[in-house]
Design brief:
Layout: H1 7-27, H2 30-37, H3 41-47, H4 51-75, H5 83-88, H6 94-106, H7 108-116, H8 126-147, H9 157-176, H10 181-194, H11 197-201
Helix pairs in contact: 1-2, 1-4, 1-7, 4-7, 6-7, 6-10, 8-9, 9-10
Length: 210
Amino acid sequence: MSLPDKSIDERLMKSAKEVFLDKGFEMAQLSEICQKAGVTTGALYKRFDGKEELFYKIVSDTIETMESYVSRIETDDLSIYSDQEIFDGFHMNPEYNMGWLKYLYDHKDDFILLIKCSHGTRYTDFHSEWSEKLNKIHYKFYQEAKRRGLATKKITEKEMNVLTTAVWTLFYKPFILEFSWNEIKNNAYILSDFINWNEVLGIKKGVCDD
């Protein structure tokens, strides 16, 4: 009795990623994915329900890591945070963001699939949904800073939403433009100067300086 070819799953995943990145989810054809992988469509359907499950399997680790990071902060009690930790929650501190940027860069194909190629999947609204998650965190940190008297200006959650959406765009756009890692690092410092949270939120000069 012959053993099942365990390399088929890996070949299908690799082939699917290449086709999704090239054509996007909606335009990708299972026949092309199978041809590139050197397998039949029957072999694919023995392992996956179809195109969307393939897409999900490819991006699942990246999306789960991103969501677990957000979920942890959503449930944190910010009252035990230091002042600097509160400011780091919404300030574009390049050193603070570098670890997260490096993770995304190391998984950039999966990240690009989510931000550029996911239309037609369960992640079609990834941009708006992720921006909403980030906005809740930003506003939570802002409210704690306001409670402590460290943020002196009033801003509504809707106003924060506009700002968070802009920041999110500035954050992911370099990946779409295929920045190198050095370019992404340099851009992190540029964004830190460009986005002046101190002014927007009325943070006293020097309070959240590095």
